[in-house]
Amino acid sequence: MGRQRIAQTAAGSPWHALAVGELVRELACDPQLGLTQREARQRWERWGPNTVVAQRPTSACTLFLRQLADTMVLVLLGATAVSLLLGEWGDGVTILAIVLLNAVLGLVQESRAQQALRALERLNAPACVVLRDGLPRQLSATELVPGDVILLEAGSRVPADARVLEAAGLAVDESLLTGESRPAGKGPGTHPPDTPAAERSNVVHLGTAVVRGRGKALVVATGMRTQLGRIAELIRTRREEPTPLQRRLEELGKYLVAACLALCAGVVAVGIARGEAPYRMLLVGVSLAVAAIPEGLPAVVTIALAVGVQRMIRRRAVIRRLPAVETLGCATVVVTDKTGTLTRNELAVRRLFVGERLLRPQGRGFVGESGQVWPAQDRALELALLAGALCNDASIAAGREWGDPTEVALLREAARAGIIPELRRWERLAEVPFEPERRHMRVRCRTGREQAAYLKGAPEVVLGKCSFWQRNREREGLDDAAVGRIQAAAEAMADGALRVLALAWQPLPAGGGGQVPPAGYTFLGLVGLADPPRPEVGEALARCRRAGIRVLMATGDHPRTAAALAEEVGLTDPPVRVRQGRELEELEPAALGRAVEECAVWARVSPGQKLRLVEALHRQGRVVAMTGDGVNDAPALKAADIGVAMGRGGTDVAREAADMVLADDNFATIVAAVEEGRAVYDNVRKFVRYLLACNTGEILVMLLAVGIGLPVPLLPLQILWVNLVTDGLPALALGVDPREPGIMERPPRPGGESIFARGLAGKILGRGLLIAAGTLAVFTWGMISGDLALARTLALTALAVSQLFHSFDCRSERRSILELGLTGNPYLLGAVGFSGALLPLAIYGPGMERVFGTVPLDAGEWAAVLGVSAAGSAAFALQRGVERRLRSARRRLAG
Fold first, then answer.
1. pLDDT grade for 116, boundaries at 50, 70 and 90
2. The whole model's pTM is what?
3. Residue 641 falls in the annotated catalytic set
């Protein structure tokens, strides 16, 4: 058997679609004896070890240096050098610390993909039992090759992708690959080539776990050719795109640097042309450049994101990658799984059909369709609950539950209805376990001298063994009419996406030797089970609609199950339209885009199809958040703008590939995180507005003064002092501003939107002009006295105080400080107070007048400075008030 032949078979004819005879011929093996040691060794030399191998990791040094190849970082390094040349060691060390901090954060972020691949490697099975030379041998799973025959049993991990040849009650937990919460029954047979992954009952995959039964399987793929291997390849070849915030800050950095350097060069050129000393003007220009370039911007962004992370942790969302905080704020689509995110990830009894009554659990009783409350003491209902609890291998003790989810749900329902004390009186004598071929479970139990047999299974199987049915305390013959009513009830439950089981019992005569007859049972009822939706999901979906965020469901479940849940939680308006995952592969890009736009519910979706869904949404310009919990979800989580993994029920691989982990696996937590993400971006705009308006004012003061023939208003050290006093702490305080009310009533901003959009550039330029005008006004007033030192002191003070006043205006783009109040952000109050206290040091500090060239100011001069500085804030408050009244008037006219 050649290497090429195996590769072609695996790619061209899916393993699950081949008949066993054809499979054996392709793999040239004996399913009864397995391979010989010699043949296995030859194949291992051709195919290599059965391991999922991560890509060779990039060194930490390379990753670190990669972080420094950024425009803003290079400019900051230049600013560090200039600051050190000017003797400003404090500024230089601070800027250098900022650069190193951001480089370390980038290093941590870029190591995530390597961590995800290492998590995949941990899923390699350590050992397995394989037939070699006709004998079972325990070997390292790395020695397996295609054509090996492996033996599976409960508690073991599947060591490779394999076709099931024999099975006895075999069930495998495939949730890490398919997302299905229930163990999948496995057995021999074939399936059509297009069978969804969740329905391929004849295949087991590397890394999944056998939960019950035993089986024999033929290895068809090992190592990187397995499903896990293909996922690993997708993870390591997927290029991680920069987030919207990273793109905007990169763009902002380039423009700011160019503009600041050009304007500073203009100030120097004009000053020299007017006869100022070139050396002095050069110092002014360099000082102005250092002050104008917002070197604190990366640090403030980092702190704002970190504060957002802490707020999200309090709301049960753990952020693994800082820029993801802001990206959440511009999410336009959330693609969510069903199980565990929209639902509780636990089966529960939703309906019972007992004695011709359709009931639903409520409190400690049951409610009929007419609203009548039925107590658990109803004989037929009591017998049905008892049958579900006795014909059951699950257990509940000390608040913990063990066993198959279906059986746990039945036991939980019996406990809720008070049947457990009755249950403890019964002793199990014998059982016939559930098997896929038999489709039912039977037990024989005894209490005192009374014996009975109980039956649980598929409705058609159980009905076939029944001759009677229980109608409260009466037992009647099961005629065709009764069978018809029971079958109609079962179909109605199934149409409602419930998993339906039937229950029956048979009293046994005392001293009958314990023989259980094959028929003659009494039908007790039907139980409809489903994974109930989380109670808070409905309101969370409504908040998404109000926020302009579209929600899509992509699940591996049956279309009928997906549709029922979508209708119940209000995901989409009825009638619910469902499309299947295979269409994501079959449709051309244009048709796929239309389908994704029209349909919100996608069922039977496989891992690769989730990736196609994300790519289709990206082609439409959407910013996508996607949830996932299995290994299969890792490529799509990495491709999405925001990958959201489950913290409770998810796998390590999914968590390593994700940007955010939900500590409670709850969809409502995603909505809370989006709210915090929007608040973070608002805060980024607040401090960008503040920093750039202040820096614009500084540049315009110098440029306009030199341009109209005035002396230089500020000396180099005065410029640097203003920058030190005003730029740092207030900007940091704005970065932690509380979120504004109504933040989730706004539509998401476009992912490619400039940070200056929605009038921010005009606000920055306008306030910069006001700051410059006020500063030049007091400077000119000081010049009238003929004292240049006084004029410069007035300019220094007015420039700094105007900027501190402006920090309060930056708290909102929609409301004035009069509406918000001064106490909403205590950090800002503290920052302005501390900065305001530093300012007089340059004027009144011992020896400072010689360092900074300042003179003391009297009360009248302080009053003039404060009046001019507050004028900008007063104008902004007046503008907001006029705009608010105009909006109110328009609403009244519209109403």
1. very low
2. 0.67
3. no
